[in-house]
Specification:
single chain, about 240 residues, mainly beta, Hypothetical Protein Tm1070, Chain: A, 5-stranded antiparallel β-sheet, 20 strands, about 0% helix
Length: about 240
């Protein structure tokens, strides 16, 4: 049986150090099941991009022709941001020759509210603007949110990430488990912390910041029922 809305936030502190860079993400999964799911608005498990590739965007509504800004990492693991105009339900390439190894967010940067859900994905079969392959979908902007909801980040090339605090809470009298996952480059993801959250939640600072190496991934997965909110506070700087 699937649960109620579950929301998770990853937030980076800024100005921690003069040379540190903001590191922030937040996510929501509208129906987390009894098995582990990523905290993102498309639901179920997310599949990272294995080989750098072009990204596509489309909307479930032909009325959506506004600009979106996509942010992530390029083929060399350097930060990359591209603004692209939607063409309604038509699959449209993000940018021109840009390729992506990671993508974190897509935002509506126009003054017009979206009519449909907006998707960012690897080249796929698209029906009425909706990509059909779960493993190719990277982000989704649900109607009414105007930006994607995905609780995952990666460390750019030549940088080191540092997590200083993690917190989580649930808005109902129900138990849920959240796992902080860390995936070093070229390795399988491992659990770095487990939160068994019930009602009021908790805040857990790292006395010694949790270090995340260049080209590593950090993300949250969860099981259980209830509306869950959580944060990861950190920053990245030159390695």
């Amino acid at each position: 049986m699937r649960g109620r809305n579950m929301a998770v936030h990853m937030v980076a502190v800024h100005n921690v150090l003069d040379h540190a860079t903001n590191w922030r993400a937040f996510g929501q999964n509208p129906a987390v099941a009894a098995t582990l799911e990523d905290i993102w608005s498309f639901g179920a498990r997310h599949t990272e991009i294995a080989t750098a590739a072009a990204l596509k965007v489309s909307s479930s509504s032909g009325s959506d022709t506004f600009d979106v800004t996509v942010a992530g990492l390029d083929a060399d693991w350097n930060p990359q941001t591209v603004t692209q105009t939607l063409a309604g339900e038509t699959e449209t390439t993000v940018g021109t020759t840009e390729t992506w190894i990671r993508v974190f967010s897509i935002r509506n940067v126009s003054a017009t509210a979206a009519v449909g859900d907006v998707y960012c994905y690897l080249d796929d079969t698209v029906t009425a603007g909706v990509p059909q392959t779960q493993t190719k979908v990277q982000l989704k902007i649900p109607i009414g949110y105007e930006r994607s909801l995905a609780c995952r980040l990666s460390v750019p090339l030549g940088k080191v990430g540092r997590i200083v605090q993690v917190s989580a809470s649930i808005s109902a009298a129900a138990a849920s488990q959240i796992r902080l996952m860390y995936r070093p480059f070229g390795e399988i993801a491992e659990v770095r912390r487990v939160f068994n959250v019930y009602f009021n939640g908790m805040v857990m600072p790292y006395t010694v910041p949790l270090e995340c190496a260049a080209k590593s991934d950090v993300f949250l997965i969860a099981t259980g029922n209830g509306i869950i909110s959580a944060e990861i506070n950190g920053f990245y700087e030159n390695a």
